[in-house]
Amino acid sequence: MEIERLGPGDEATVARIGATLFDHAPREDWTAAFLADPANLLLVARGEGDEAIGMLTATRLEHPDKPPELLVREVGVVDVARRRGVGTSLVRAAIELAPAMGCAETWLVTETDNDAAMGLYDALGGTATGDAVVWTWPAG
Question: How high is the mean pLDDT in each 10-residue block of the chain (140 residues)?
């Protein structure tokens, strides 16, 4: 398995893998903006035959009273590749890239009943900080 960081110029790759790895089809304009911003990270795991089998997105967060942090926003692995180390490799790669992005730590949020994710993050040596509630508000 290989982990590849995508960047500007890789929009066609994101469009190709979008149907299998993202929740929704990636929009061309959003993809271009995401890839153009150096604060964003998009990693793709490739298996046999160069097939995309996993992806991770993350964003560097800035705050006035804390050092920059890397927020892992989403990890996706195709069904046939689950529980084979793909997610672990993607998250480990993001953690390893965080210092080069100027980040002091990497963090993410997952549901406490997501046993697969909880096991993965625990195995990577992460620290669970308790139950989290995520609130959202639509724009406008």
Answer: 96 90 94 97 93 95 95 91 90 95 91 82 82 73
**Among candidates 76, 97, 74, 95, which has minimal Cα distance to 86?**
76
Strand partners, 57: 42, 74
SS3 129: coil
State which H helix or E strand residue 74 sits in.
strand 66-77
User: pLDDT digits over 101-139, tens only?
Assistant: 999 999 988 888 888 888 888 888 888 887 667 776 777
**Spatial distance between the Cα atoms of 100 and 2, rounded to a whole number of angstroms:** 20
Sequence length of the chain is 140
Residue 114 phi, psi dihedral angles, 5° rounding: -90, 85
Structure tokens at 42: 């998009």
What predicted TM-score, i.e. pTM, was given to this entire model? Answer: 0.89
Give DSSP secondary structure letters for 10-73.
Answer: -HHHHHHHHHHHSSSPPPHHHHHHHHH-TTEEEEEEE-GGG-EEEEEEEEEEEETTEEEEEEEE
